[in-house]
Recover the amino acids of this structure.
């Protein structure tokens, strides 16, 4: 089984700190999504997953109903399917977040820059005590395989490029 976080540097809360070669997300929203998804990956899987993303092995992904579904070209003929599932939120949470964005001066502009206050970020993605679950059709039985890292990195890149896309998750 995988040990949590491998040998990489960690912050005070025990979360991995992205290395210089990593695809470290720039925006707060993308960083929270990426860090939460890859937190259980060991260093080797993290590096291989980021290389898969850099090399274009992520064939695509979609965000819907609190989960990300992606396909990654791996070591076999057929691509692997990855599902990263975030904690459940009912429709009222999405409505609350949209009302907050519409009713708070500058909030939509901030989200366009990838900035979202803590409470809203917790509702959109996950709170500090929550974690997403990753599943992959590959034979690797670890909690987070390199294919899941690749999809998380691709999603983080897309959110960095267009932070409003994070709303698709909910």
């Amino acid at each position: 089984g995988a040990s949590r976080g491998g040998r990489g540097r960690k912050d005070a809360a025990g979360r991995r700190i992205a290395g210089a070669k990593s695809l470290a997300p720039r925006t707060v929203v993308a960083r929270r999504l990426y860090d939460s998804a890859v937190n259980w990956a060991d260093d080797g899987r993290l590096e291989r997953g980021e290389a898969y993303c850099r090399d274009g092995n992520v064939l695509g992904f979609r965000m819907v109903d609190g989960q990300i579904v992606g396909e990654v070209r791996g070591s076999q003929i057929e691509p692997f399917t990855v599902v990263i599932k975030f904690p459940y939120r009912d429709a009222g949470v999405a409505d609350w977040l949209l009302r907050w964005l519409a009713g708070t001066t500058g909030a939509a502009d901030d989200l366009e820059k990838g900035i979202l206050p803590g409470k809203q970020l917790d509702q959109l993605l996950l709170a500090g005590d929550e974690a997403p679950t990753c599943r992959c059709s590959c034979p690797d039985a670890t909690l987070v395989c390199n294919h899941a890292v690749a999809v998380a990195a691709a999603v983080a890149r897309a959110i960095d490029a267009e932070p409003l896309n994070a709303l698709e998750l909910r």
Confidence is low (pLDDT under 50) at residues 1-9. Helices lie at 28-38, 43-54, 91-103, 107-112, 118-124, 146-161.
